[in-house]
Structure formats: structure tokens, C-alpha cells
Amino acid sequence: MNFVKHRLTIFTPTFNRKHTLHKLYESLLNQTNLDFEWFIVDDGSSDNTQELIKSWIKKNKINIKFHRQDNSGKHVAHNYGVINCETEIFVCVDSDDQVTKDFVSTIYTIWPRVNQQASLAGIIALKGNVNNMRIGTSMPTSLKSCSISELYSKQKFKGDATLIFKTLCLKKYLFPVIDGEKFMTEGVVYDQLSKDYEMLLLNKIIYICEYLEDGLSANIDLVHKKNPKGYIFYLSQRIDLSVNLWNKILFSAWYLVGIWRIGYKPSPEERKHGAHITLAYPLAILLLIRQNYKRKSHIFKVRI
């Protein structure tokens, strides 16, 4: 594949975020290195987002590529961005977030270490809030790299992370698209990628995020109920990708909790069978009780 001048694509899917998108735009204008392309996919916004982006394109202060699609969901927009990405590096930055001034320069500084190893699919870095305070835990100091799944499971990392990918690696793992549903959790792709690749760990905040009241994280229960097949697909895939009996039982328990919580009756094709499901029932009941308690205490936070 022949890449265009820029080596880095900053990809932003957006839906009715005209009131927040300017913050990201301004953070990109302030980069110490402007060698990047900003690829925006508008997921059928009704708030004149398209007109705003076109005005920025006319100003020509940074390189912007724009596409508008019918409202189909972030995962469909992400698929379009990955398929049509023409640069070596791909990173998704949400439309209600910002990046630090050295975001681009930091990626380029670290990238040679990623390119030297075929086993690496990219970089995992930290996210911070508007006060530049780390969201979640720091990266483990005992490792230079690990898979995304291992970081959260075995290494017990907590919080969101910035994920920068080799575009050619990411093109291998697109989101499944289900008719009538507009959400698919990012974990579907990251779990598949974790089978084959590790990520270089970067213990530095380069991404600033703000959780909005109308964002996905704040409304995840409702999102799952509206998109049950995609949610069950994610939970089922985790069972199928399990490498040992304990993980298969654990993810089977979360599968049961998931269908109970959203009140979903799986089809025969979606229904999971086997001894691991039977063994998972007691654990699933305990997990559901604990989850309900934490939610009632207002301290439970879902990572998607």
C-alpha cells in the first residue's frame, strides 16, 4: 500500500457534537507537530456539524478529510475510517475529547520502537482529565509491552487508555455490523487483536477526555438494551476466545449476567451451552448481586 504524505491519521467519529468538536479542533491546531491528517466521519448529525467542518476545511490550517454517513453507529463509522485510512498510523480520538500539545510528536518519537517489532500492533498510553490528572492506574513498570486484554485482566490496569495502531494491523479486525443495531463495544475488536498482537506501553498522558451526561459511558445499560445482539456477540466471543477453563467459566458468568440484566432471550444460535455455562451459574449470581449493590451505591463505573 502506498501511503500519502502524512504518516498519522487522527480519526474522529461524531454525532451531534458540534458544541464540543471545536475543543478537539483547537487542540489539533496547537500541536507541536502538524504532520497528521484529521479524518472525520459524521454519523448523520442533525446539528449542522457538516457545515462547521466544511468551514474548517476552507481555512486549511490542518489537513482534514471528511465523510458523512447515514446514522449507523460509531462502529460503522470506525470501519469506514479504518478501511479508507491511507496512512501508516491510526488513532481514534472521540469528538468530545482533546489531545495534549505533544500528542503527535510523542507518537512519532515512540513509533520507531513499534516498527521494529512485528509482534506489536501499536502503543497504549494514558488518558487524563481536563486537570491533567491520570484517569485510572498507571502502566505496569515490570513490562514494556503486553496485549490489551492482558493489560486489563492479568496486569489489573484500570481506566480508559489511548490506543494508537499500525493501520495494517487494524484493517484485519473490523467490527461486525448487525442489522437494526447502532452500537458495538470496542472490546469486540480489541479482544480479537489481543490474540495475535501486543502493544507497547507508554506511561504518559497524551489524551484528555471528559465524560458527558449524554455520552456512552453514562448510558451504557440503555445502549445494551437497544443493541442486545451486539452485546451478546461481545460476551459470547469472550467465552470463545478463552484460553483456559477458569476464564471460560468467568466469561460465561458475565454472559449470564449480561442477558439477565438486559432481559434478553438468546436465539438458539446465540445460546451458549456446555459444562462451563452450568459451572458459571453460582458465580454469575454473585456477580449480579455485587453489581447491583455497587450501582445502588453510585460507585459502579462500566468500562466499554
Task: Outline the secondary-structure elements.
Blueprint: E1 8-14, H1 18-29, E2 37-43, H2 49-59, E3 63-69, H3 74-83, E4 89-92, E5 98-99, H4 103-115, E6 120-128, E7 145-146, H5 148-152, E8 161-166, H6 167-170, H7 187-196, E9 198-208, H8 220-226, H9 228-240, H10 245-262, H11 275-296
Parallel strand pairs: 1-2, 1-4, 2-3, 6-9
Antiparallel strand pairs: 4-8, 5-9, 6-8, 7-9
- Indicate the percent of residues in helices: 40-55%
**Structural class of the helices, strands and pairings?**
alpha/beta
End-to-end CA span: 32 Å
Broad shape:
globular
Provide the residue-averaged pLDDT: 92
Number of strands: 9
Query: Count of helices?
Result: 11
What is the succession of H and E elements? EHEHEHEEHEEHEHHEHHHH
Beta strand % = 15-25%
Show unreliable segments. Answer: 298-304
Biggest β-sheet description? 9 strands, mixed
The radius of gyration is: 20 Å
What does the model show?
There is one protein chain. This protein has 304 residues and is an alpha/beta fold. 41% of the residues lie in helices and 18% in strands. The chain has eleven helices and nine strands. Strands 1, 2, 3, 4, 5, 6, 7, 8 and 9 form a nine-stranded mixed beta sheet that branches. It is globular. The protein starts with 7 loop residues before the first strand and ends in an 8-residue tail after the last helix.
Q: What would a concise description of this structure say?
A:
41% of the residues lie in helices and 18% in strands. It has helices spanning 18-29, 49-59, 74-83, 103-115, 148-152, 167-170, 187-196, 220-226, 228-240, 245-262, 275-296; strands at 8-14, 37-43, 63-69, 89-92, 98-99, 120-128, 145-146, 161-166, 198-208. The longest helix is centred in the last third of the chain and has 22 residues, at 275-296.
